[in-house]
């Protein structure tokens, strides 16, 4: 179908966005991830010095508009950091420019517009413009900076503006190259100078790559600086959550956690909002006109009686005195359990659908285990990514299972170059085990770790990044 350039796309694009999140094919194979009542701590204090870090313009209003208002009213110091300008969304660019084939300059103009929308939104919440910081990194690039484009000599080119540096003049560091190290440096500088007591940022469980990427960068930086701060994580993109936003209005109801996150290493806090705070939050969200054109029903469902925040405890990796049996086709003592057969079940290879993840230490080796919905397949790429926090410095290990062979990949200058693979991978139907020798284990503070699977060159599932500590 071809639309004329002058056509208004808002209704069409909103419908496309909704349809991408609806169940497909066999409804019985697609369980809803509904919200559930769990133990939630009520919290009315936003903190003494508050730093909010979000991926895109509008995320700060969706997740923390109440926090911002309370901080302003209490005259607490607060800074809001927006990592990207959200300029690479093709749907938003089409709606903003009325051009069905947006060009790099269209994406650039969209970025400027979204900056202006953020300023307008923050004005509705009472936040001064000088407390809003744009970093200007490329929208849609954060997970790539985290995994593949870390070193400063290897920037990533934006998919929207087609440049490898920030083209905006009003960002924290104009012309900054798009690398992971540069992003981490910016966050470290801001944290060190502002000295926050409380940091709000996305959950690593979020399904949007920019969201879990910003989560990883934030948590990495906090721990690299060894900051003693309170961490509060919020969720935006998750299957059927907030539920069911596309069917009925949940306005003025409480926001509750997704049911499948209630038993993980996550505890929850709720910040109540009064009617005036709810109203101001809605007014702030409505300032994002470029986004309201394409996702208004989704955005407005975050106007609730509360805001919800998660706290992640470190996961303890047990030390085994006798080697567990690795031959069963299922993992008996998982550290993380995930939904299988969800939204993507009908679209992807079942072997690329992770349901369990675990780890243990035996005889000074680290064993990592994955269980998938289908048998481990040579058609799927399985990746394990580790950041090792030592008493002096941070190292990384990247492992990939390719065609049944485990490979150690050097992705950054701080990658461990000596081989850590001590044995062949163990594959038994649906389970995969890899055995890794951790260098200098005696000085290891903890491991920041995640895993993912790639099918047909697409990221299809992931184990959310968590802090792991080895059992003493």
Automatic annotation (TrEMBL):
Annotated protein name in UniProt: N-acetylglucosaminyl deacetylase, LmbE family
GO molecular function, one term: hydrolase activity, acting on carbon-nitrogen (but not peptide) bonds, in linear amides
InterPro entries per the UniProt record, alphabetical: GlcNAc_PI_deacetylase-related, LmbE-like_dom_sf
Pfam families given in the database record: PIG-L
Source domain of life: Bacteria
Annotated SUPFAM superfamilies: LmbE-like
């Amino acid at each position: 179908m071809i639309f004329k350039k002058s056509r208004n796309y808002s209704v069409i694009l909103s419908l496309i966005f909704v349809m991408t999140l609806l169940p497909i094919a066999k409804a019985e194979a697609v369980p809803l991830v509904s919200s559930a009542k769990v133990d939630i701590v009520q919290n009315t204090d936003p903190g003494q010095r508050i730093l909010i870090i979000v991926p895109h313009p509008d995320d700060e209003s969706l997740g923390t508009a109440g926090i911002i208002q309370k901080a302003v009213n209490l005259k607490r110091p607060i800074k809001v950091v927006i990592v990207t300008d959200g300029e690479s969304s093709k749907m938003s660019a089409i709606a903003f420019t009325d051009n069905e084939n947006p060009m790099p300059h269209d994406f650039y103009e969209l970025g400027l517009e979204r900056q202006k929308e953020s300023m307008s939104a923050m004005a509705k919440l009472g936040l001064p413009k000088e407390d809003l910081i744009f970093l200007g990194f490329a929208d849609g690039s954060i997970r790539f900076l985290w995994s593949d484009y870390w070193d400063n000599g290897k920037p990533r080119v934006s998919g929207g503006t087609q440049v490898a540096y920030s083209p905006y003049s009003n960002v924290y560091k104009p012309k900054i190259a798009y690398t992971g190290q540069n992003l981490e440096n910016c966050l470290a500088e801001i944290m060190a100078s502002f000295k926050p007591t409380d940091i709000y940022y996305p959950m690593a469980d979020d399904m949007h790559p920019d969201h879990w990427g910003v989560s990883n960068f934030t948590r990495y930086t906090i721990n690299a600086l060894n900051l003693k701060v309170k961490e509060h994580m919020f969720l935006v993109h998750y299957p059927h959550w907030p539920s069911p936003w596309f069917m009925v209005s949940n306005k003025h109801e409480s926001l509750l956690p997704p049911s499948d996150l209630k038993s993980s290493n996550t505890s929850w806090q709720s910040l109540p909002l009064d009617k005036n705070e709810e109203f101001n939050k809605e007014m702030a969200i409505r300032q994002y006109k470029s986004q309201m054109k394409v996702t208004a029903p989704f955005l407005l469902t975050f106007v609730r009686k509360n805001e919800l925040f998660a706290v992640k405890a470190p996961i303890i990796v047990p030390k085994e005195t006798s080697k567990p049996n690795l031959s069963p086709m299922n993992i008996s003592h998982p550290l993380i359990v995930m939904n299988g057969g969800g939204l993507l079940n009908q679209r992807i290879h079942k072997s690329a659908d992770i349901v369990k993840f675990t780890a243990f230490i035996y005889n000074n080796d680290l064993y990592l285990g994955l269980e998938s919905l289908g048998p481990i397949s040579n058609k799927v790429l399985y990746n394990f990514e580790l950041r090792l926090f030592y008493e002096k410095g941070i190292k990384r290990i990247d492992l990939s299972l390719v065609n049944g062979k485990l490979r150690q990949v050097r992705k950054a200058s701080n990658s461990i170059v000596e081989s850590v693979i001590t044995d062949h991978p163990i594959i038994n139907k649906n389970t995969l085990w890899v055995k890794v020798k951790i260098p200098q284990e005696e000085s290891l503070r903890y491991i920041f770790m995640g895993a993912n699977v790639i099918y047909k060159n697409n990221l299809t599932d992931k184990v959310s990044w968590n802090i792991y500590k080895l059992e003493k």
